[in-house]
Amino acid sequence: MPSISAKEFLIWKKQQLLKGGDYQSFALLLDSIGGISSNTFNLLSINPEGNLYLKKNLKYLESIWEEHLFNSHPIQLLCGETFWRNLKLKVTDKVLIPRPETELIVDIVFKIFGKTSQEIFFAELGTGSGAISIALALEYPSWNGIATDIDENVLEIARNNYINSSKKSNLKFFCGHWWEPFESFKGKLDLAISNPPYIPQDTYEKLPKEVKNFEPKIALIGGEDGLKHIREIIQKAPLFLKDNGWLILENHFDQGSKVEQLLIENKFKYVGIVNDLSGVGRFTIGRYK
Ligand SMILES: C[S@@+](CC[C@H](N)C(=O)[O-])C[C@H]1O[C@@H](n2cnc3c(N)ncnc32)[C@H](O)[C@@H]1O
């Protein structure tokens, strides 16, 4: 294990951050490849004495950092993992890197259902890394959930993330197109959640390199107006939700009122837009009938 004095390490860290990038990305690199947790790192900044033991040497860490900075390679993919809420999730180029703003979906669920010990049956359509479903399954051990995706390789990652985060078995994974895996659960769901691909085709073309070159197209593009998948999910939701069942969707920053309208047209009530932490109408929710 390479060892280095704390002082030397702090100088090196400053040099790396001067090249660019953000502190959170650097902290992920240190934790996941360097073996230096945020706690160790914070203690070190207060008391820079003694020696540090790294899993990889500074030259190697520096080469990864530069690959991230100069080739716009997402640090999460270089590290093979990411932090999301209180979870550490494996990610590859097959799955969308779960975004911080999506963390709020779990808070919306808390607001709706509170600390209920009822046996809620929930579904997540398009689970990707499994982030949302795993967080709910852990938070509500009495709930049962089904998380789906169109891509079996993606589900493999989600399944492993679940096994690594939980000893329980209250979450199942099925492969298929949106509602298809739920054929035998018609009228049975208390809650359905989806963060579907919602980027309009022409907006996708203008996305930054770190997204376009490294993240799966199928997780991002929502047809010409971005609403192709959202429309399909909303139109079929009434078949699968119980009366009074909730639907929670993430959408593009400017789609809130259109999604709201789609919910109303499909007989949802208590329809509303929920802002993310930057005040953007990022989520739309409704209760069926
Ligand atoms: C925007 S990503 C969301 C991933 C994850 N839920 C999250 O919030 O980070 C959309 C996900 O939907 C999946 N997907 C795309 N088309 C689908 C379809 N027709 N049926 C089911 N899942 C689909 C993609 O593979 C991808 O994992």
How many helices in DSSP terms? 12
Beta-strand residue fraction: 15-25%
Radius of gyration: 21 Å
What are the secondary-structure elements, in order, as H or E? EHHHEHHEEHEHEHEEHHHEHEE
Write down the overall mean pLDDT.
Answer: 96
Shape: elongated
Number of strands: 11
Which structural class do you get from the secondary structure elements?
A: alpha/beta
Helix content: 40-55%
Low-confidence stretches: none
Q: List all distinct small molecules, including ions and cofactors, that are bound in this structure.
A: S-adenosylmethionine
Largest sheet: 7 strands, mixed
N-to-C CA distance:
61 Å
Q: How are the strands ordered across the major sheet?
A: 7-6-5-8-9-11-10
Would you mind describing this structure in some detail?
With 289 residues, this protein is of the alpha/beta class. It has helices at residues 6-18, 23-34, 38-46, 58-71, 75-79, 103-113, 131-139, 152-165, 201-205, 209-212, 228-240, 256-265; strands at residues 3-5, 51-53, 81-84, 87-90, 121-125, 144-149, 171-175, 189-194, 241-250, 268-275, 281-288. Strands 7-6-5-8-9-11-10 form a seven-stranded mixed sheet, with helices on both faces. Strands 1-2 form a two-stranded antiparallel ribbon. A two-stranded antiparallel ribbon has the order 3-4. A hairpin with a 2-residue loop joins strand 3 (81-84) and strand 4. Helix 2 crosses helix 4. It is elongated, with a radius of gyration of 21 Å. The model has no long low-confidence stretch (mean pLDDT 96). The structure holds S-adenosylmethionine. Residues 95-96, 98, 102, 125-129, 131-132, 148-151, 154, 177-178, 195-197, 218-219 line the site of S-adenosylmethionine.
